[in-house]
């Protein structure tokens, strides 16, 4: 296996966590973002959109972090990172989707509005922060009575882990329930192994 990634991008961190949870070894290739190597023909042949992460395995290349996570679950089902029941699996996948589009739109509106074509004004940045805090409250509601987002530790937790850990470091208010969940994440060996350089 070979993982193409860059530390400045949040999405590859979740793939690194899953690889560590599954005990899978892999090579790494750091891809310059934006532009640089990510727009060279050889990398565009792996992902025509020039984004990381990309995972090469068995002669195939897979892009999009959530698709990669599902692939890892298929080829290495133990330890299981998806619940058994169809309804719980759907909940996990719903959260995985929410951790992509809605979260990242608000994140960029808060910290880099110009990258999304938004005007870089205090009002736009404040809106992005407010949206993220509302998003965190959705997670907090799930964590009031449970240690993880959907039953046992799952791909839902892995998808949100780098996002909320970095938001917490950046000064977003997460509250006590989410803060305790972050402490549980930080204590996991796989999260430490995958995100050690940015956990502080």
What would your notes on this structure say?
- This protein has 200 residues and is of the alpha+beta class.
- Helices cover 56% and strands 8% of the residues.
- It folds into two domains: 2-75, Glutaredoxin (3-Layer(aba) Sandwich), CATH 3.40.30; 86-189, Up-down Bundle (Glutathione S-transferase Yfyf (Class Pi), Chain A, domain 2), CATH 1.20.1050.
- It has helices at residues 11-22, 41-44, 65-75, 86-98, 101-111, 122-143, 155-170, 175-187, 189-199; strands at residues 2-5, 27-30, 54-57, 60-63.
- The protein has a four-stranded mixed β-sheet with strand order 2-1-3-4, with helices on one face.
- A hairpin with a 2-residue loop joins strand 3 (54-57) and strand 4 (60-63).
- Helix 1 (11-22) packs antiparallel against helix 9 (189-199).
- The protein is globular.
- The two termini are 28 Å apart.
- The mean pLDDT is 94.
Features:
200 residues, alpha+beta, Glutaredoxin, Glutathione S-transferase Yfyf (Class Pi), Chain A, domain 2, 2 domains, 4-stranded mixed sheet, 56% helix
The CATH C-level name of the largest domain is: Mainly Alpha
Count of separate structural domains: 2
- How many runs of DSSP E, i.e. beta strands? 4
Helical coverage, percent range: 55-70%
Measured between the Cα atoms of the first and last residue, the distance is 28 Å
CATH architecture of the largest domain: Up-down Bundle
Task: Give the overall pLDDT as a whole number.
Answer: 94
Shape: globular
CATH topology of the largest domain: Glutathione S-transferase Yfyf (Class Pi), Chain A, domain 2
